[in-house]
Amino acid sequence: MNILVLGRHGQLGQSLEDILPKTYPNSIFWDRQSLDLQQFDDIEHQLTAQRPDVIVNATAYTAVDQAESNKKLAFAVNQHAVGRVADYCAKNDVPLLHVSTDYVFDGLGQQPYVETDEPNPSGIYGASKLAGERAIADSGCWYVILRTAWVFSEYGQNFLKTMLRLGSERDSLAIVSDQVGCPTYAGDLAFALLTILKSIENGTCSWGLYHYAGDSAVSWYEFASAIFAQAKDAGLGVPEHVTAIATEEYPTPAPRPAWSVLDSSLFTSAFGQAASDWQRGIKTCLRALNHPSQ
Ligand SMILES: NC(=O)c1ccc[n+]([C@@H]2O[C@H](COP(=O)([O-])OP(=O)(O)OC[C@H]3O[C@@H](n4cnc5c(N)ncnc54)[C@H](OP(=O)(O)O)[C@@H]3O)[C@@H](O)[C@H]2O)c1
Fold first, then answer.
1. Does position 294 have pLDDT exceeding 60, yes or no?
2. Residue 136 sits in which domain range?
3. What is the pLDDT of residues 178-190, one digit of tens each?
4. Residue 235 lies in a domain
């Protein structure tokens, strides 16, 4: 199967490049130079020239706070470009695997969100990602959309890497404790996409929308504490004091959902893969960051 991955240099794109070629040696990874999704008119032309069997879209405009003042760009990448890719897929019978976000919900829930819960994004990023989901569904292509949350990895910029950097620089840190979510290791998310690709190959894919995130819910404060506990065991510098603070003590341009807990059980029953074991993900990241060549 010829798989085309868009978003080569993102967290998920790099995690996919670590594993996909072992099963699918013909996988191709495109970065922004290969296809800039803001150039809408290039999309169909480039995809037609490549003729992939399946497309995995690991791209997104992910700057949650900047999206508030950059609405046009957020919607260009997360809705309009996604719609163009989906239209190509519908026209050419090419399955599309796509990734979306917990930010499609307003975070006012009290139970883990399931796929049938009504989205109601409170910021531009979430609204643009929801519009992208709808563009895919409206295109009529074969698709699987995975909504995920709190993605971290050894690659790019993410909460784990920020904590490790700040932890080595400062004696004390204050971390928000009234936002709760499910941290997701990008390596597990990449593996979930590989599982879907295998099901497409053997003709058993259960198409549709799924949640795929961490296997338990924690606050940012608890997530940071778990990172520091493992970092300390690994001999890394950690802050002496980590304090829990409220969201209003750490204001951001985009509102953050207080409750970002995704229920991954539908995905597990459809594809047989458990939710992301994020504690193990922390361990894998620390090992990769300490020994980059392994
Ligand atoms: N990170 C999270 O916490 C989180 C949470 C929930 C859902 N998600 C979703 O998970 C998916 C993967 O996220 P991630 O963390 O891997 O994102 P990321 O690290 O920010 O990577 C995003 C990728 O999109 C590419 N991109 C952005 N604009 C582009 C354009 N105009 N043309 C071509 N490529 C473009 C970037 O290219 P450059 O490298 O050239 O910039 C980068 O490779 C996304 O759909 C995201 O919405 C992420």
1. no
2. 3-158+182-214+261-277
3. 999 999 999 999 9
4. no
Q: Which parts of 27-95 are beta strand (E)?
A: 28-30, 54-57
Average pLDDT, the chain: 96
Distance 37 CA to ligand 1 centre (A): 12
Closest CA to 169 of 105, 237, 121: 237
Ligand 1, atom 26: closest residue by C-alpha:
59
Q: Is residue 256 part of a domain?
A: no
Asked if the structure places residue 138 within a domain, the reply is: yes
Q: Residue 150 sits in a domain of what CATH number?
A: 3.40.50.720
Q: In testing the pocket of ligand 1, which one of 6, 8, 12, 15 has its CB within 8 Å of the most ligand atoms?
A: 12
Strand partners, 276: 214
Long-range contacts of 266-271 (CB under 8 A, 24+ apart): 266/114, 266/115, 266/210, 266/211, 267/146, 267/192, 267/210, 267/211, 267/212, 270/206, 270/210, 271/192, 271/195, 271/196, 271/199, 271/206, 271/210
Q: In this structure, are strands 151-152 and 172-176 parallel, antiparallel, or unpaired?
A: unpaired
Q: How remote is the C-alpha of 117 from its chain's centroid?
A: 19
- What's the mean pLDDT in 142-162? 97
Number of folded domains in the chain? 1
Q: What pLDDT is attached to residue 293?
A: 55
